[in-house]
Amino acid sequence: MSGAARPAELFFEVGRSQLNKKNEELCGDSIAVAESPESMVIVCSDGLGSGVKANILSSLTAKMAATMLQQGCSLDEVIETLAHTLPVCEVRHLAYSTFGILQIMRDGRTYLAEYDTPPTFYGRAGRLAGLPRTERTIGERIIREAFFELRPGDWVAMVSDGVLHAGIGGIWNLGWGADKVGRYLEMAATKGDEATVIATEITDLCSKLYNGEPGDDASVVIVKVRHPRDLVVLIGPPADRRDDPEVVRRLMSAPGKRAVCGGTTGNLVARELGRSIGVDLTSIDPKVPPTGIIDGIDLVSEGILTVSYAVEKLKSGVHLRDVAFRRDGASRLTALLLEADRVQIMVGRAMNPAHQSPGVPINLGLKNKVVEDLVRALAARKKTVRVEYY
Q1: Which of 102, 101, 105 is nearest to 141 (CA)?
Q2: Which of 149, 152, 117, 115 is nearest to 132 (CA)?
Q3: In the chain, which ranges are continuous DSSP H helix?
Q4: CA separation for the pair 82, 327 (Å, rounded)
Q5: Structure pTM?
Q6: Which residues are CB-neighbours of 39 under 8 A, at least 6 positions away?
Q7: H/E/C letters for each residue in 198-211?
Q8: What gap in Å lies between CA 235 and CA 257, rounded to an integer?
Q9: Is the pLDDT confidence value at 19 over 70?
């Protein structure tokens, strides 16, 4: 059937970081993210004041708005519901919480709504880009709105007042300010770091500007737009050698990058592909077995030990930049896993006598335990994981 080409799939990487006001156990800002197959909704809300009361009201605002929009309610309905739910400060006659809403459809069409919150930053082609807004009144509240389209390479940053005010009365009399924050974001977004790393850098710098005693809660949400990154990992040979050709065919036909874990598995892949396998002498490490080289495979490593070390690194909270340039097998596998958005794990059921005692059910074997740990560690990193057994 002929027709228009299907548009390339987009992936929206979200990073967030928050800084509590000094002497407060809870942040007065709240961030809520709600996802569905059709869209992603991000709400950043700033509760009036700080502490427990601000946290409760901003959390209510963020979660209610995100949930209602995700369920198809209009912004007018959201505002009306919030107006009837949240009180107004009797002294200052201000709403108890403000908000910024970002609704991103899977094809990149984006809606932004801001109520009494710092303007959202937007970048394209490595530079800050203007985002024309219109104003309308909903329930006596003036809402700034923008409609735009996100493309690969674009980024969006939502910040609370505490970010713009950082350094006020100290390093900078008027605080960090929107212009300086925008220039910093423009520089940070072009370095290629993960969204979470950029968001954390911003709040770390805010803390320094506040001399370690934040005068306000500070929150940052970063969204980076790109095509999704896939990885397929083959761990162990299949239980039936007759399945070897099909397993390798699936490995090579999968999108994205490929990793093969296990010496026997590496030999199997090289044999089925009719290619040689060598040793990467640059990967020598006293703790981690050396890696191999097969043309067309991004990483060939030892099996269970290397995967276990990679799981430890994932659990430790390591970032991509911490392992991106290390040559040992565990670091390279960790880097591939962190870089990927969707991970397909192909697990061979062949028993390795070194890892499995006779008579022990396969679901209690060391290999399966390590795979289960790997899946949990990836899920904690918000990766999409699929496991297949052969």
Answers
A1: 101
A2: 149
A3: 51-70, 75-85, 161-164, 177-189, 195-209, 244-253, 263-273, 304-315, 320-323, 329-339, 366-380
A4: 53
A5: 0.86
A6: 70, 103, 104, 105, 106
A7: HHHHHHHHHHHHCC
A8: 15
A9: yes
